[in-house]
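Practice record 12: protein with zinc ion.
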Amino acid sequence: MMKKWILSAAVLLAAIGAAFFLLAEPQENTEYPVKAHSGMNMSQQPKSFKSAVTLSAIGDILIHGRVYNDAKTGSSTYDFKPMIKDVKPLIGKSDITFANQETMIGGTEIGLSTYPSFNSPFEVVDAFQDAGVDIAGIANNHTLDRGEKAILNATDRYDEIGMPYVGGYRNSQDADEPRVINKNGVKLGFLAYTYGTNGIPVPEGKPHLVNLIDKPKMIKDIEEMKKLSDAVIVSMHWGVEYIRLPNEEQQELAKFLADQGVDLVIGHHPHVLQPMEWVEGQNGKKTFVVYSLGNFLSGQVGEYKEIGGIFSVKITKELSKGTKKIEVTEPGFVPTIVVNQNNRAYRVKELKNVDQAQNNAIQEHMFQNLNEEN
Ligand SMILES: [Zn+2]
């Protein structure tokens, strides 16, 4: 009797398993580029489905001359992997990791350069890809530092290594290609914008080179991205350098993005950390905003400029009775610090292993606007 019951239960479980297998959305791997799914048939989606993806983000990868000189291994070869090896397990821990590539990766062909007009070696992105970065934001005030050529070289390199980039593009077709990463059946749509380009004008007729903060364009982009993805993630290069709290303009833009129904805003540019908070949009939609992720790897020191971190959230998608629910939960932040010895041996380390008291203070700083129920 017992045996028969076990057998029936096993058959039932197998049937449920098979049904789930048939109904579940395919667990596609990260794919890129993702074309508009114009032929997608919603009726083929299962009645209920629940899945989650973990997402991390790191701040500015700002490669000063003293940093690339330390990474030099030959006449025109570089290796940045040792600089981030201590935090590599943390960078690659989430399903998907976003980084702000502040300096363009134009390569040695056009000559490397440091502040104020940066150009960095290709090996920078190689190292970050090796550490687990999946997508690079390249809309920032340094995008145009070395002109179109640096952007074309950078985008070539990203394509070569198979890493999507967002916010700066080689041409208008490239700019029209939505950056959607499908992981565990959850489609993450990425957009990126910058407040400006250090006074360097965007070349005539080439607005694709860098996405500027432009509300009508953003409304359109976000609307389009909502149709193609489950969660919309917007990278914002904004705020005032070296200021540890968001200003009114950032808060106003965060509210604007919440009003558009964006799920997550990843901020950077101040080169120091600014806190995280929930911002409520006009329809009651709550958007998670991290105002600034600070510097992740740079040659800047002092006044918190060597402090950065690895931000993370969980994004859950639930389909039930014809409605889709997207939830952003479990915000986390692991503070990091860049150390060096007389501009040699640049290393990114977990702050708790270098200065426990400062680590605690940074944690408090980042979580100050999140109450416990969040
Ligand atoms: Zn910047």
